[in-house]
Amino acid sequence: MRNRFSRQIILSGEADSLREFVRYNVKAGGDFSGADLPGLNMAGSVLATVKLASANLSGANFTCSDLSQASLVGANLTRAILIRSILSRADMTEANLTGADLTEADLKDARLINADLYWSNLTAANMTSADLSQTNLSKSNLTLAQLTDADLFWADLGGANLTLANLSRAVLTVANLSRAQLTMADLTGATLAGVDLTDADLTEANLTDADLTEANLSGTNLAGATLKGANLERSKR
Questions:
Q1: What is the 3-state secondary structure (H, E, C) of 179-207?
Q2: Residue 9, Cβ density class (10 Å: 0-12 exposed, 13-18 middle, ≥19 buried)
Q3: How many Å apart are CA 98 and CA 198, to the nearest integer?
Q4: DSSP 3-state of 236
Q5: Mind listing the pLDDT tens digit for each residue in 160-171?
Q6: Alpha helices in the chain (DSSP H)
Q7: 15 confidence band (pLDDT: 50, 70, 90)
Q8: Distance between CA 114 and CA 153 in Å, rounded?
Q9: What is the three-class DSSP state of 41?
């Protein structure tokens, strides 16, 4: 079945039959790697362990769908709708999620290494223990996001909104947080060594026991921030 489904099927009005095919075959670990399925509507579907590596899913609708442990490596998910979807332990390495809506999505333990989430909506998303190293999250909305124990090594969060986000114990070594909004964010015990916080807003943020060694704090707003036990050795201010 691999690569059988194409844009022509979607445009020829057979989308409903395709949806039913996927729905009834995915339980056996269906492989749709490389498939061309723009605009596919699979809202509310159970798609656990499905293989969609390198698939074109731009504009697809996966609202409230179960994509746990799915393989989405290198998939095109630009402007995809993944509201309240389950993506726990999914592999989205190098996937393109530019402009995607992941509001309240469950991304616990997901792999998003080097993925592109530019201008995406991750409001209240659960990314606990997710691997977001080298991921592009610039201009993204991460308000109320759960990022406890997440790996954000070398991630780009420039201009991102992390208001009230939970980043406790997160690894943000050499990450870019310039001009990021971190008002009332929880960074307790977070590793921020070498991070760029130029012109970032950390008003009332909790940085208790955070490691800010060699961090760039030029223009950073720390009004009302808690810095008890924080390591500011060789930080630039």
A1: CCECCCCECCCCECCCCECCCCECCCCEC
A2: middle
A3: 24
A4: strand
A5: 999 999 999 999
A6: 7-11, 15-25
A7: low
A8: 10
A9: strand
More confident residue, 108 or 13: 108
Could you tell me if 127 and 144 are in contact, meaning their C-beta atoms sit under 8 angstroms apart? Answer: no
Among 149, 139, 77, smallest CA distance to 110 is for 149
What is the pLDDT at residue 1?
A: 39
User: What span, in angstroms and rounded, lies between the C-alpha atoms of 181 and 202?
Assistant: 7
The beta-carbon contacts of 82-91 under 8 Å, at least 24 apart in sequence, are none
pLDDT(235) > 90: yes
Please give the Cα distance from 228 to 210 (Å, whole number): 9
Read off the tokens for 24: 């009834």
Judge whether 215 and 237 are in contact, CB under 8 Å: no
209 vs 223: CA distance, rounded Å: 17
**Could you please report the per-residue DSSP string of 88-111?**
TT-B-TT-B-TT-B-TT-B-TT-B
7 or 89, which is more confident?
Answer: 89
pTM attached to this predicted model:
0.91
For residue 85, what are the CA distances in angstroms to 5, 44, 46, 112?
Answer: 23, 8, 10, 15
Reported as a single tens digit per residue, the pLDDT across 147-158 is 999 999 999 999
Contact 58, 80 (CB under 8 A): yes
For residue 84, give the 3-state DSSP assignment.
coil
Q: Which two three-digit tokens encode residue 204?
A: 């009332």
